[in-house]
Amino acid sequence: MLEARDLTKYYSAIPAVRGLSFTLGPGGVLGLLGPNGSGKSTTVSILAGLLQPSGGAVRFKGSDIQDDLLDYKSNIGYVPEEAVLYTYLTGPEYLSLVGQLRGMSMRTIDARIDGFLSLFDLKDDRHAPLSAYSKGMRQKILISAALLHDPPIVILDEPNSGLDVTTTLVLRSLVQTLASEGRMIIYSSHVLESVEKVATDVIILNEGRVVAHDSISRLRELLELPSLEHVFRQLVIETDIDRMARDLVGVMKL
Amino acid sequence: MNRTVLLAKTFFARFFETDLMPPGLPQVQLVIWSMAFLAAPGLLFPMRFAGKYMQLEHRPALLAHALIADRLVFITLTMTAIGLVALVIWDGMFPDRRDARILSALPVPGRTLVGARLLALAALTGVFLAGVNLVPTVVYGAILAGYGGAATVLQGALAHALSTSLAGIFVFSTLMALQGIVLNIGGRRAADRLSLLLQLVFIVALLQMIFFVPRLGAMLPDDLQAPWLRLVPSVWFLGLYDLLGGKAATGAPALAGMALTATAATVATSAGVFIATHGRLTRLALETQDSGRATGRAVIWMLNAVTSRVAPRATARAMFEFTIRTLSRSRSHRLLLSMYVGVALALVASAIVPLVLRSGFAIFTSPSIEILSAPLVVSFFTIVGMRVALAIPVEPRANWIFRIREPIDRRAAIDGVRAVFLLTGVLPTVVLAAASAGGLWGWRRGLAHAATCGLMAWFLSELMLMRLDKMPFTCTYLPGRSRIGTLWPLYLTGMITYCYTITALELRLLPHPASLVKLLLFFAGGIAVLTVRRHHWVTTLAGFRFQEEDPTSLFAGFQLSEGLAAASEDTRRLR
């Protein structure tokens, strides 16, 4: 069980996240939604153990993760929002580095790297440095690195970034399969459709605060809206979207 | 593999990941290039010195002095080489945002991260110290003992190895401690701002050491006893060298003590700062965005005002703004430029300071080549440095914006770049020449000197842009293509002609204004010819170049994996 209690994060005096709480059990997929600057990335960074919260706590199996952060980190797989990689390494070299730093045996690492590269169609590029990889290829490496050690918690921050349609569909199915095997998934994305398809629960953030937290079906019921996009529009978007589009076209004609 | 060693290897490779080099370049190759560059003088000196000692064999006093002065050369050389290495890997010394984001999500203890980076830094210093000093240690150690500079060959070699290595470690750890302190006090942004200044100061100081070492060697007392020796760090290590060689001069033990104390203190400070603040710096790297500093309103206003005058056409204006903003904001390019400016300042100082030491400030009462050449020396290195910087890409993948909308008016595009040269290379030269000569010898001399220097700098700028067939900062770069290895005599002759021959000519013509005007008109004519030829040449181009030719041939076969990597990339591109 992964639990966040009243999470708060301030950068200097500026609040990025305020009072976020949730509980995620095995098999659960929690979708994190929100516009830019809503606190999604900060939340994900706290859940990945990258940032310490200013207040509140993240608890895993009943213990505060800060009590044994290394143990917690060995239980998570994390796909960051930015494709930060050591670009002078090749894909297999990077995955091997991550696997070894996670204390895995070389035999297991090699077998899994081979499997991931084959399935993600990266075998032909195994000798190329990551600097030569496309955005989608790098994303596949990041996803492989997150899953390499078979973690019970998987945190995905904008995992679809740069992926082609097939891989996006594979990823969606992968998330569902991982959940069905009892893993806990946190799925942060701007792509509402993806979140709607995979998440059991969803948290919608706006300006660092939780504006909705429930299952998607219940949110739709409560607000009497047909889709997650409509729910999101209702709760978060204050701008008249159609008018803004018209204004943008107007600017093009200045 | 041990996790600390594994991470240390990763960090070691990252040290050489710089915008100055193309992405994907084999790290081994970079290390070898850098090593060859830095080790070359150390390989040549022992034989040269041996020849000198042979000639001085029957003049013991001169031989003894030469032995002292030459050891100082090796120490200074090592300090310079290791200082340059530290400046090149400056950004990789402490954890940055990328390290923090990749490694903080992994279950790796902080002590492993600290140990790995310190190990990588130690390995880097060790590798370069060995590269610079291994051959001189063996060869020069034996030569030294043969001519009485050390008690035995073994002691000679040991003294050389230890004193030069400790001198290098002293410089490296001083720079590391300095960066650590600045990072902790002012944060990453302050460190970035200060690093450029520090780098410039260190480059000038390090290069000064090279220019001054021969003079310093001549001034050294044989007994190494003079109060001023305590102020020169390289001399501390000379004392250590002397002491370890087994034939210590009277003042050597005290200097050796200073060398050991200083090295221990800087190593302890740098390691202490690193260990104590690693966690804090990692946290700061995660919590703060990599944001550049905002440009001040006054600067924007000035830039706009200047742009509208020097580059009125849209294409020229765009290129002017892009070039000047890139030069001023890209850390790698600023570092490169600061190196060139550092060389210029070092050359100027090495010409003027000895004169002042010898004759006092009386040298400023009348024009001399040393003083008059200063603006030209600065402009030469600034303009050449800018031309070199233009060839090094910034974010090569971002060049698509130029590729999809390559300027039709290529002439205007290069004119925009020329405007940058005029603003940052020619204008400061004019101001420097007018201020120095005008302030010292009156406005007429100031005007004449400003006109000469300005026209020469303009001429050089046109020459540098003559065959420019790339948009600045957008073409991939292959360092191996540089022809400096074969053309250096030409470049050196060009530099001497530009900086000193022209100054000598100006000095001769100063009493004859009419002749000087004719000379200036000749330069102006030369500029006009070069401009016309450049315009003609650029319009005949089929298009700008965005990729260096034959990108794989450099590395294929050097390392099997790199050859395969290149082949794989080609295959991917073809797909």
Describe the structure in your own words.
The complex is a heterodimer of chains A (254) and B (575). Chain A contains ten helices and ten strands. With 254 residues, chain A is α/β, with parallel strands linked by helices. In chain A, the strands form two sheets. Chain A has a six-stranded mixed sheet, with helices on both faces. Chain B has three domains: 285 residues, no CATH class; 234 residues, no CATH class; 25 residues, no CATH class. In chain B, 77% of the residues lie in helices and 0% in strands. Chain B has 19 helices and no strands. In chain B, α6 crosses α8 and α10 crosses α15. The radius of gyration of chain B is 26 Å and the shape is globular.
Order of helices and strands of chain A: EEEHEEHEHHHEHEHEEHHH
Helices and strands of chain B: which structural class? Answer: mainly alpha
Order of helices and strands of chain B: HHHHHHHHHHHHHHHHHHH
What's the CATH class of the largest domain in chain A, please?
Alpha Beta
Strand content of chain B: under 5%
Low-confidence stretches of chain A: none
Give the total of beta strands of chain B: 0
Task: Name the features.
heterodimer, A: 254 residues, alpha/beta, Rossmann fold, 6-stranded mixed sheet, 40% helix, B: 575 residues, mainly alpha, 3 domains, 19 helices, disordered C terminus
Give a brief description.
Chain A has about 250 residues and is α/β, with parallel strands linked by helices. In chain A, about 40% of the residues lie in helices and about 25% in strands.
SSE layout:
The complex is a heterodimer of chains A (254) and B (575).
Chain A: E1 2-11, E2 14-24, E3 29-33, H1 40-47, E4 55-60, E5 63-64, H2 69-73, E6 76-79, H3 91-101, H4 106-119, H5 135-147, E7 153-157, H6 165-180, E8 184-188, H7 192-198, E9 201-206, E10 209-215, H8 216-223, H9 228-235, H10 241-252
Chain B: H1 3-15, H2 27-56, H3 60-88, H4 97-103, H5 110-146, H6 153-219, H7 233-244, H8 252-287, H9 297-310, H10 314-329, H11 331-359, H12 369-372, H13 374-390, H14 400-404, H15 410-441, H16 443-465, H17 484-509, H18 513-540, H19 560-574
Helix pairs in contact in B: 1-5, 2-3, 2-5, 3-5, 3-6, 3-7, 4-8, 5-6, 5-8, 6-7, 6-8, 6-11, 7-8, 10-15, 11-13, 13-15, 13-16, 13-17, 15-16, 16-18
